[in-house]
Amino acid sequence: MIALIDADSFFASCELSRKPHLRGKPVMVLGRIGSFVLAKTHEAKFRGVNTVMPYWEAKKNCPEGIFIEGDFRFYTLVSRRLMAILKQWSPVVQVSSIDEAYLDLTGIDQMHRKSFEAIGDAIREEVWQKLGITVTVGISTNKVLAKMACEKKKPNGTVVLPQAQVSKFLEGIEVGDVPGIGRQRQLAVKRYGVQLAQQMRDLPMSIIKNLFGRNGILLWKELRGEYMFKVDASTRIPKQIGRTSSFDQPTQNIKDVEGMAFYHLERSLESLHRHQLAAGELNLYLRDREFKRIYLNHSFAKPTHDFFKLAGALQTLVDKIPKGSWWRSTGILLQKLSSSKIRQLSLFEDVESVVHEEDLNRVKDDLNKRYGQFTLTSGSSLFFKKKNRKKSDDERLGVM
Question: Do both 31 and 137 map to the same domain?
Answer without folding.
Answer: yes
